[in-house]
């Protein structure tokens, strides 16, 4: 068999188990990446369906469709699914697919662990979702599960909730270790640190955040478990504990967590803008330093979620200043993107449209974040719809829009076919309009004084809530167009070239489309 | 693309008209409030808002200029510049300066808000699922404040009133022109006491005491709500504060002290009396609907897995003493509160009798005030 060409040799490697076995036992980063992405999309729709229940109940004042207890379960599980089931796995999926290709590696460094980190996820979410069917329903204490609401005052679904969070945490930690080891050890010769694409850089930093804070989350859920079942009193003053201690530990995880959900988005946008502006990214080095600064600052600002808990005034001042400081590196990023566009030669395909919408709408979310940092004003904003508007601007029009942009950007590389540009544009415009109808009025509702996490509200909020609900339903429906585009693109269409986009640069655009099952078995040469 | 562009431009207009027309009664901005502090907070809010608008106008302005001018369709060639240390330093330094300018007034306001010394009146505010308790530390006055909106309005069986979900049976009353200090705590989970007009939002943490203060200059009625998720009826524990002139306030305090003293005297008289089953049942039903239905539900069925049913409860049917005890002393480690502190002897006797005989429990016996009193004194049956 020594006579066969190396090309045939490549094909010989393509043999893989067929059917379900291929997916269960795969150690291929592309297969695992695809599974992560499909799983995230499913969870996005499941979490979205819960959001629809929430918006349906809030369509009119009074209780119409669900009971307050079930409403609380919906807000809780919607949050958990969107954070841990949709956004984080989607980013991990993108990391799996793109990082090895972008650095010229044949696969992830730890492929079997990679298989595990994906395959435990569906079970975690199965447990979480099944807990909704327990007597008394599932977790109903908000995704932040503040004690003692989640300890003394919760039902037994809490045990399942804790177990599910543990599995999700293990999955994330394994994924993060894999990313770090891959990037550290498997870069092709010549791929120096400061030549890595920004998506790789942002994920590298994100992975460090993950391995630092996911154990903190595991700790705090375990403390909840032992307080509830084993007689400890970490969060119970009667036994010498403190309920506010819970919040300090939770947000020490929680704040870096929100950057875990946005740093990879920065990487994606930093890849897309230069491609469609046909001009190199402005200030590459400052982008790397800004990302690292944001990551370090993220450990010093957690208590800005807790300004009303009654911290000493000097602690409050420290956290206010540190939080305001985050605006500086974040601002640098936005300015760099705008400078990249400046005097470029732009075209506006769907990935670019989502990336541009990301810059504008994420920045709006950043502005409301800056407002929230001003502590005396935060006393009025805290726990109102103003906060709901803020974090949905950064997470939906921020993180989710960046994921959608990434999907459009790399779909031709994944499937080998161009997506339907017309349908994609339709998806973009429907999403852009409805998402703003949905979240923009929430700023006003919050400023007028509507608390978050309430199933019923005073009459003055009625018209706005009806309006918001309609926006919500439209945004939900708009995402069906996305499924249509993806399915259509996977089934066929115009053949994609290797480079796909005229202005695209990087290793992923030098391999054929669709990307072969195995890439870079011999390392590429980076000039 | 022309259609799409039309849509883009019409979006802000659409949103704007919607925000103006959608509600004539809902304010579109944060309240200025009625205290010096709340005005300062409003000023901070508006300052940072306009700063954000200005930065947004510049950044988005440049971005959209670039989108319009530097598009490939116009035949432009991309430039090749991609870094400039000077400009990077500039756009790092300018935001730092803006932030320092913003931080100074914010710090001053925050320190002023923190100073709870030299208060004229002190009120202990205690949250519990799902009501507020106010105790005036300088007077013999304390009472619970519950949602006054009828359940039928919430379940859409009756038309909703003007102050739907924002009305209580007994509002908090404070004097104008005096520094009022609030001490916040909780009996169960974390609640948060929020009155926007005073710019006070402070968590009520179980086992700890937080402080806040206000000085209201004009008499008036101010509404607020619990702001921290505290379980099922988090959306149904409003706050109403009435500010009265010092004279009216003093008169109110005297009146309340008399009312509470009279009620206590009546309690003692009650010990010697036997109330009829009818009287106990009708009072009991009223108390049940005010204090118990949130958890145990209107038909006594509870919520499986969270709140146990009263209908057919073995404790009720077989152990009368334990039934009285759980009402008076609560059940530690659960949501069942010690109602001995919250309800009068008559109300306790009535609601225990009611739950012993409603929901097909039909034990046929009554519980009298003296029975409850005995348990309260630690001398149960």
UniProtKB/TrEMBL annotation, chain A:
This protein's UniProt keywords: Cell membrane, Copper, Electron transport, Heme, Iron, Membrane, Metal-binding, Respiratory chain, Translocase, Transmembrane, Transmembrane helix, Transport
InterPro entries documented for this protein: Cyt_c_oxase-like_su1_dom (IPR023616), Cyt_c_oxase-like_su1_sf (IPR036927), Cyt_C_Oxase_1 (IPR000883), Cyt_c_Oxase_su1_BS (IPR023615), Cyt_c_oxase_su1_dom (IPR033944), Cyt_c_oxidase_su1_bac (IPR014241)
Topological type in the membrane: Multi-pass membrane protein
TM ranges: 36-56, 76-97, 118-138, 158-186, 198-225, 258-276, 288-307, 313-332, 353-374, 386-411, 423-444, 464-487
Residues covered by the Cytochrome oxidase subunit I profile domain: 23-527
Subcellular localization, as worded in the UniProt entry: Cell membrane; Membrane
Keyword Transcription regulation recorded: no
Signal peptide per UniProt: none
Catalyzed chemical reaction(s): 4 Fe(II)-[cytochrome c] + O2 + 8 H(+)(in) = 4 Fe(III)-[cytochrome c] + 2 H2O + 4 H(+)(out)
Keyword Repeat tagged: no
Pathway: Energy metabolism; oxidative phosphorylation
Annotated EC: 7.1.1.9
Cited Gene3D superfamilies: Cytochrome c oxidase-like, subunit I domain
Function of the protein: Cytochrome c oxidase is the component of the respiratory chain that catalyzes the reduction of oxygen to water. Subunits 1-3 form the functional core of the enzyme complex. CO I is the catalytic subunit of the enzyme. Electrons originating in cytochrome c are transferred via the copper A center of subunit 2 and heme A of subunit 1 to the bimetallic center formed by heme A3 and copper B.
Name of the protein described by the UniProt record: Cytochrome c oxidase subunit 1
Organism (species): Alishewanella tabrizica
Species classification: Bacteria, Pseudomonadati, Pseudomonadota, Gammaproteobacteria, Alteromonadales
């Amino acid at each position: 068999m020594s006579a066969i060409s190396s090309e045939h040799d490549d094909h010989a490697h393509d043999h893989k188990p067929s059917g379900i076995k291929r997916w269960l036992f795969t150690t291929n980063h592309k297969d695992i990446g695809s599974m992560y992405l499909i799983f995230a999309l499913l969870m996005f729709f499941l979490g979205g369906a819960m959001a629809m229940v929430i918006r349906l109940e809030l369509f009119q004042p009074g209780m119409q469709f669900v009971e307050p207890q079930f409403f609380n379960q919906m807000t809780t599980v919607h949050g958990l699914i969107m954070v841990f089931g949709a956004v984080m796995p989607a980013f991990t999926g993108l990391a799996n697919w793109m990082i090895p290709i972008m650095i010229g590696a044949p696969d992830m460094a730890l492929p079997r662990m990679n298989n595990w980190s994906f395959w435990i996820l569906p079970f975690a979410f199965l447990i979480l979702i099944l807990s909704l069917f327990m007597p008394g329903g599932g977790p109903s204490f908000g995704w932040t599960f503040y004690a003692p609401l989640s300890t003394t005052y919760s039902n037994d679904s809490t045990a399942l909730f804790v177990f599910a969070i543990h599995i999700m945490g293990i999955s994330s930690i394994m994924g993060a270790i894999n990313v770090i080891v891959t990037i550290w050890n498997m870069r092709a010769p010549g791929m120096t640190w400061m030549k890595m694409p920004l998506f790789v850089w942002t994920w590298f930093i994100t992975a460090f955040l993950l391995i630092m804070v996911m154990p903190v989350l595991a700790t705090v859920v375990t403390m909840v478990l032992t307080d509830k079942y084993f007689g400890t009193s970490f969060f119970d003053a009667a036994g010498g504990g403190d309920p506010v201690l819970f919040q300090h530990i939770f947000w020490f995880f929680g704040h870096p967590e929100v950057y875990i959900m946005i740093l990879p988005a920065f990487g994606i946008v930093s890849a897309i803008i230069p491609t469609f502006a046909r001009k190199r990214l402005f200030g590459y080095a400052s982008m790397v330093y800004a990302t690292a600064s944001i990551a370090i600052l993220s450990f010093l600002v957690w208590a800005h979620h807790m300004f009303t808990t009654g911290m000493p005034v000097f602690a409050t001042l420290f956290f206010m200043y540190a939080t305001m400081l985050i605006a500086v590196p974040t601002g640098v990023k936005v300015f760099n993107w705008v400078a990249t566009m400046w005097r470029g030669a732009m075209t506006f395909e769907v990935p670019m449209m989502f990336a541009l919408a990301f810059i504008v709408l994420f920045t709006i979310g950043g502005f409301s974040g800056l407002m929230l940092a001003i502590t005396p004003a935060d006393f009025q904003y805290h726990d109102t719809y103003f906060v709901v508007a803020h974090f949905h601007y950064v997470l939906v029009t921020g993180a989710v829009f960046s994921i959608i942009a990434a999907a459009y950007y790399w779909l031709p590389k994944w499937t080998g076919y161009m997506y339907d540009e017309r349908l994609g544009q339709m998806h973009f415009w429907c999403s852009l309009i409805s998402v703003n109808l949905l979240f923009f009025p929430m700023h006003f509702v919050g400023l007028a004084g509507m608390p978050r996490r309430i199933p019923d509200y005073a009459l003055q909020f009625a018209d706005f809530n009806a309006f918001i609900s309609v926006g919500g339903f439209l945004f939900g429906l708009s995402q069906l167009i996305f499924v249509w585009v993806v399915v259509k693109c996977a089934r066929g269409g115009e053949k994609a070239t290797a480079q796909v986009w005229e202005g695209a640069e990087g290793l992923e655009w030098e391999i054929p489309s669709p990307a072969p099952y195995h890439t870079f078995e011999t390392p590429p040469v980076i000039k | 693309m022309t259609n799409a562009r039309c849509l883009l431009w019409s979006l802000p207009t659409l949103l704007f008209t919607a925000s103006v027309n959608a509600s004539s009664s809902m304010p579109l901005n944060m309240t200025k409030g009625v205290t010096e502090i709340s005005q300062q907070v409003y000023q901070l809010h508006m300052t940072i808002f306009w700063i954000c608008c200005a930065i947004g106008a510049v950044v988005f302005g440049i971005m959209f200029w670039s989108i319009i001018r530097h598009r490939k369709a116009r035949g432009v060639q991309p430039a090749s510049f991609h870094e400039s240390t000077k400009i990077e330093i500039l756009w790092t330094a300018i935001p730092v300066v803006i932030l320092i300018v913003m931080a100074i007034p914010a710090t001053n306001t925050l320190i002023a808000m923190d100073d709870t010394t030299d208060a004229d009146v002190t009120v202990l505010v205690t949250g519990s699922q799902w009501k507020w308790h106010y105790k005036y530390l300088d007077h013999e006055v304390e009472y619970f404040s519950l949602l006054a909106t009828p359940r039928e309005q919430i379940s859409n069986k009756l038309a909703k009133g003007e102050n739907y979900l924002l009305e209580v049976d007994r509002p908090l009353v404070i004097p104008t022109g005096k520094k009022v200090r609030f001490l916040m705590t909780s009996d169960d989970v974390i609640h948060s006491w929020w009155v926007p007009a005073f710019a006070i939002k402070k968590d009520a943490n179980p086992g700890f005491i937080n402080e806040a203060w206000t000085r209201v200059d004009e008499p008036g009625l101010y509404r607020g709500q619990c702001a921290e998720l505290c379980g099922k009826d988090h959306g149904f524990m409003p706050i109403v504060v009435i500010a009265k002139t010092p004279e009216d306030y003093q008169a109110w305090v005297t009146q309340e002290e008399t009312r509470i003293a009279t009620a206590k005297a009546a309690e003692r008289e009650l010990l010697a009396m036997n109330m009829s089953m009818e009287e106990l049942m009708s009072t009991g039903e009223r108390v049940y609907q005010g204090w118990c239905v949130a958890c145990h539900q209107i038909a006594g069925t509870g919520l499986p897995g969270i709140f146990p049913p009263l209908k057919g409860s073995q404790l009720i049917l077989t152990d009368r003493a334990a039934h009285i005890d759980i009402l008076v002393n609560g059940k530690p480690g659960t949501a069942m509160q010690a109602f001995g502190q919250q309800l009068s002897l008559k109300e306790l006797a009535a609601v225990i009798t009611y739950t012993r005989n409603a929901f097909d429990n039909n034990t046929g016996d009554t519980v009298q005030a003296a029975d409850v009193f005995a348990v309260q004194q630690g001398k149960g049956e």
